[in-house]
Amino acid sequence: MVCVAAFIVLALCVLSLPAVRIFNRPAADSIWKLFRKSVYCFTHRVTFRKCDSTFKDDIKNSLLRKVVVKHANWVKPLSAVIETLSVVVILLTVWSLLVAFKSGVNLLAYDTCTPDQPEACVVGNAEACSAVGANDGKNILEWTGNWFVEIGDALAAIPPKFADWPAADFLPENPSFYSTYDAAKPVALDIFDPSCKWCKESFKNQLDSGFLERYNVAVIPYALKDGNDFRFKNSDLLVRYLEAVKLVELESSDRPAQWRIIERIFTESNQHGLWQNDFINYYDNTQARAVLNDWLAEFGYSSSEVERLVDLVDSAQVAENVAKNRHIVENQIKIVKIPTTLFDGKRHDGVYKP
After folding, report:
1. What SS3 class is residue 328?
2. Other CB atoms within 10 Å distance of the CB of residue 39
3. Cβ(195)–Cβ(279) under 8 Å?
4. Over the stretch 296-310, which tens digit does the pLDDT of each residue have?
5. What single DSSP character describes residue 92?
6. Any alpha helices (H) in 16-54, and if so which ranges?
7. More exposed terminus of the chain, fewer Cβ within 10 Å: N or C?
8. Are the C-beta atoms of 234 and 195 separated by less than 8 Å?
9. What CATH topology corresponds to 167-349?
10. Do 222 and 338 touch, CB atoms closer than 8 A?
């Protein structure tokens, strides 16, 4: 262990040799000579070969030389301390390399070295809006297992991220675009849960940056689930309303009703704050339906059209469309986080950043 630890320490010292050589050439030469010996011993140790060098003893003797003279009885315990410190150095080095590797993989997969501080909601994770593989182990063995699982999840997420993702290939049936469709503009696809706080932030960034005007942006509303239950209160109801309004065209507005609902939920407020908060925290199903029906009338739907939409929300047709959208999201795009945006042939997981 002393050989390996010495190799690690000397390898770090070698990095500073050019500077050391300027001020103390003999010291630099001595470090280089020791490093060459350590390389010989290290390569034998890591390949499970016997090291016939006296390098280990040389290191110990150089450290204990003065102790032997004055306190001979200290040599044995100090030798044990050196061995222990060597193990600590090796373990810290291995851990540092693993952390660096994991950070690099996370950066490639999620555009951040620390996905435990995410800007997204994880699909199928009972920890709600937390990182992919956020480590929540309750003991050291569970924590360690989860830590390595996170690396595997990140490695699995890299190939899909760098694949070709033409947004037009994943559009839902009868897509509703934020602005009037312009063939000269590229197509983009947003996947939002109307109750997700990070989806709100992503939409606001798109709105403020002009993204929604530069692209033909369509949306797939998607209600996050934890097992068989929907993660957010009224999320599924909002998704069904967003699908229903696509079936009844709003003639009196230059903005499709689907996007008007999204814009109001994400950006507009009432006496309690953002509308999104009310749907998550205050409204029961009946209250949420009443508010949405009032919005539909306000947007310009006639009373008969509102009645038709009320029926459509609970219809088999809307349920089928929602199921088709869920199939696109889960089985074709196979997202791991929401929001997800497809544009310029790439898939961008997490909050849109201008």
Report:
1. helix
2. 16
3. yes
4. 999 999 999 999 999
5. H
6. 17-23, 25-46
7. C
8. yes
9. Glutaredoxin (3.40.30)
10. yes
Of 165, 166, 158, the residue nearest 111 (C-alpha): 158
Q: How would you classify the pairing of strands 216-221 and 187-192?
A: parallel
Q: What three-state secondary structure class fits 192?
A: strand
Sequence-separated (6 or more) residues with CB below 8 Å from residue 279: 194, 195, 233, 234, 238, 265, 288, 291
Per-residue pLDDT tens digits of the chain, which is 354 residues long: 556 666 667 677 776 767 767 777 776 777 677 767 767 676 766 666 666 555 555 555 555 555 555 656 665 676 676 667 666 766 777 777 788 888 888 777 766 676 655 567 777 654 456 444 445 555 777 777 777 777 877 787 777 777 889 999 999 999 999 999 999 999 999 999 999 999 999 999 999 999 999 999 999 999 999 888 999 999 999 999 999 999 998 887 789 999 999 999 999 998 878 999 999 999 999 999 999 999 999 999 999 999 999 999 999 999 999 999 999 999 999 887 889 999 999 998 889 988
Residues belonging to the chain: 354
Q: What distance separates the 2 farthest-apart alpha carbons in the chain? A: 102
Q: Quote the CA–CA distance of 324 and 319 in Å, as a whole number.
A: 9
Q: 226 φ, ψ to 5°?
A: -120, 100
Beta strand 187-192 with 340-343 is antiparallel
What sign results for the dihedral spanned by CA atoms 326, 330, 332, 335?
positive
Fill in the amino acid letter for 105. V
Give the side-chain half-sphere CA count within 13 A for 193. Answer: 29
Q: Tokens 């068989």 label which residue? A: 228
Domain spans, the chain: 2-101, 105-161, 167-349
Q: Where are the alpha helices (DSSP H) in the chain?
A: 2-15, 17-23, 25-46, 55-70, 75-110, 140-161, 197-209, 211-214, 235-244, 257-267, 275-281, 285-299, 303-313, 316-327
Per-residue pLDDT tens digits for 272-297: 789 999 999 999 999 999 999 999 99
Closest C-alpha among 192, 189, 202, 293 to residue 241:
293
